[in-house]
Design goal:
By secondary structure, the chain is α+β, with helices and mostly antiparallel strands. The protein is 33% helix and 18% strand. The protein is built from 5 helices and 8 strands, in the order αβαββββββαααβ. It has an 8-stranded mixed beta sheet, sandwiched between helices.
């Protein structure tokens, strides 16, 4: 029962594209854990990982520990592993990093997938136990991968660049809000200084503002204030002011690059961080996803029911 996943071949999937593109498909399962593997694909690779994690679970069971329950949320953005009660995300596996997915054809409970870790770049094998849904979950991951790959080709990387642009704009907005708050405080201080001294009534002598002076009744010299050169006193005209430098036409009033998501495409010149992200996604989708049904082990996991 070998179902090699071919993304170029039309396939009758289980869910509508909208369900995976706009929402997610949720499944409940028990999480046996994950372990590092040497290769991103291979039936023997996942067999060894399943045996290893089953053995570890037998030991933990003898110590009184139960297999933790998790919720799987599958969409075109990845496979999220959450705590079913708190909804905290335990693991977030992006689809272009998943290279192999298989279910056990003997007991219809065990399924597994191999995902490349985003931080360590190691290949990790995740193993789950589900109530008669192993094959369905495997096919759902395959369908999500197929849709994600098509969306990546259609967008030409626009989605990645658009998220980057939105993030930059949000950061710029926060900076401008902070600057605006500081300017309001400065303006308020200036208004208080201008409205502070009152005009004296007619015939009365206005009090001089109290100014800090030295022992010679002179205002202390402050080197912080910049020195402004005075114009020449021989009647000559002062030198003309330097012409204003024109602003960069590619930037807006606040110095930010204009936001245009339609300039993205196959020939777009992306920043290094965006280009590396696109290369990583291209490499992951190019590797493809292999779906298989195999026999992991003949001994079922005790206490799963």
């Amino acid at each position: 029962m070998n179902r090699a996943f071919n993304r170029k071949r039309d396939k009758s999937w289980m869910h509508t594209p909208e369900a995976l593109a706009k929402h997610f498909i949720a499944y409940n399962a028990k999480f046996l854990g994950n372990t590092e593997v040497e290769q991103p694909k291979g039936t023997e690779i996942v067999k060894d990982a399943v045996r290893k994690l089953k053995f570890q679970r037998h030991i933990k069971k003898s110590e009184g520990q139960k297999i933790p329950k998790v919720e799987l949320q599958i969409s075109i953005y990845g496979v999220k592993i959450l705590d079913p009660k708190s909804k905290d995300v335990l693991h977030n596996c992006q689809l272009h990093r998943i290279s192999f997915c298989a279910d056990d054809k003997t007991d219809k409970r065990i399924f597994t997938f191999i995902c490349k870790d985003s931080e360590s770049n190691k290949h990790l094998c995740y193993v789950f136990d589900s109530e008669k849904c192993a094959e369905e979950i495997t096919l759902t991951i395959g369908q999500a991968f197929d849709l994600a790959y098509k969306k990546f080709l259609e967008s030409g990387g626009k989605d990645v660049e658009t998220r980057k642009q939105i993030g930059s704009l949000q950061k710029r907005i926060q900076e401008l809000e902070t600057e605006n708050s500081e300017l309001k405080k400065q303006l308020q201080n200036l208004e208080e200084q201008m409205t502070g001294p009152k005009l004296s009534p007619a015939g009365s002598v206005s009090a001089k503002p109290q100014t800090s002076t030295d022992i010679f009744d002179m205002i202390p010299f402050s080197p912080v204030e910049p020195l402004v050169p005075l114009p020449a006193s021989n009647g000559g005209t002062p030198p003309p002011a330097p012409p204003a430098q024109p602003g960069d036409p590619r930037k807006d009033l606040f110095g930010a690059e204009p936001f245009d998501p339609f300039i993205c495409g196959a020939d777009a010149n992306f920043p290094p961080d965006i280009q590396s992200k696109l290369d990583e996604m291209q490499e992951g989708f190019k590797m493809g996803l292999t779906l298989e049904g195999t026999v992991f082990s003949l001994d079922p996991l005790d206490g799963c029911c």
